[in-house]
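Human: I would love a firmer grasp of how sequence relates to backbone shape in proteins. Could you go through the record with me and say what the backbone is doing? Here is the record:
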Amino acid sequence: MLVREPVQAGRFYPAQQAQCRREVEAHIAQGAHPIEGAVWGGIVPHAGWAYSGKVAGEVFATLSAKSQPTTVVLFGAVHRHGGCRAALFPSGSWETPLGPVEVDGRLAERVLGHTNLIVEDACAHEQEHSIEVQLPFIHHLFPEAKILPIMVPPTAEAVAVGESVAHTVEAYQTRVLLIGSTDLTHYGPSYGFVPEGAGSGGLIWAKEVNDRRMIDLICGLQAEAVVPESQLNHNACGAGAIAATISGTCHLGADRAVLLRHTTSHEVLSGLGGADAVGYAGIVFASSQAQA
């Protein structure tokens, strides 16, 4: 049986069970935001929890108040060079400090049987963190749920990847949430991206202008525009994951996106100075109608 061991426990989030549980509980402590109608998924950041944990926690708390899915589909950002097609982890489990989370192997087989846009490739997940850092939240809030991890590169096919997964879910009447993982603008000298200068003005521009370009597309449900926007303005490291999540949730019934929180690492670490910042947004996809 395939077992994916944690590679960032002890760095991005605690490796010890008790501390990991305490931090999950702290990050979801703000509770759920009031959302009318059904929820179909969301967008969460994937930085170290010290920076973005509260943003992710708000999304997961909001989703868990409205839905207890049998499977959480996770569309991950691709940070390392890989193939041009989406890569699915097909079976087994992912270990977390809170215990294992089982992969929905049956749904994986069905997805792979319905499209050639997604390939079976457990190795593509080995060193990636964008899905891993979400799993303690899922283990804690959705203890009966399985997962379907899919790495989605930022290509034109990302929209079709989300639609294909949603079509399979619909065909087999699987109760799911679709979660896309991305951070926003990586700004500053450390990232080699300073079009508005290395100072406070540049950091403000990164959040209020560059991040907002991407957030506005997400909230406008404009899946097709996400990857070109990220390529032009460097404002999302998980553009493929975003596009797949928008298209997938819309196919299932979402008709709006709700921004819960938008912040940056610079704001979270206020008072420590520095010329760098990474943007984080927490977004939920919902519909006016209750889920059937």
